Amino acid sequence: MADNTNIANGLKPIGYLSGAPYDGKVNAYLVAATNATAIGIGDPVTLEGTSAAAGAPVNGVEIEGMPTVIRSTAVSTPVGVVVGFLPNFSDLGQKHRAASTARIVLVADSPDLLMEVQEDSLVSGIAIAEVGETADIVLGTVNTTTGNGESMLDSSTHATTGKTLKIMRLVARPGNQIGTGGITDKRYAKFVVAWAEHQYKSADGV
Q1: What is the pTM of this model?
Q2: Cα dihedral sign for 107, 86, 142, 11?
Q3: Which residues have a Cβ under 8 Å from the Cβ of 123 and sit 6 or more positions away?
Q4: Nearest-angstrom CA–CA distance, 145 and 142
Q5: pLDDT tens for residues 3-30?
Q6: Is the dihedral of CA 158, 161, 162, 165 positive or negative?
Q7: Which residue among 106, 109, 180, 188 is least enclosed by CB atoms within 10 Å?
Q8: What pLDDT digit, counting tens, does each position of 37-57 carry?
């Protein structure tokens, strides 16, 4: 059988565990200029454990007390997924957060968010019996033209516990098919996932 279309656009919010559709709700966070990693739409971010100081507005926005985030790693616990940015008035066409620049990111940070994501299918794929398990995120590059990150579901990391995302179901879309677990056909399937690990699910501070 043929592969699914290989279009990795990161994590895309689509709804909530309650069954409600995604309603666009976000919170603003700061990525500090000291951070040297580019961030795109669809990338997961993690609380850095501090907030911005007074007297240093970013693109005209006062940021005192605004929590700071960094791009998540494959194994760090996210606070949410980036869905947009406040404008960069020095480059209005910039659709991503460039490395080493201060940028306010808009994050869908609800712990009960549902998202669509593509599996990477590098070592193995997600099979029917593995829906309901968890898996980590593999971080991709940032497409500076579209602004999208290319993070994917790391299908070879699926396990019953200890991973970042819970695999809820296959995205019901014509042409999107689940494979048998190998990497010879039906690769790059799109799945609905939820947060298995989320910083706001924990009672502990950062």
Answers
A1: 0.94
A2: positive
A3: 155, 156, 183
A4: 9
A5: 999 999 999 999 999 999 999 999 999 9
A6: positive
A7: 180
A8: 999 999 999 999 999 999 899
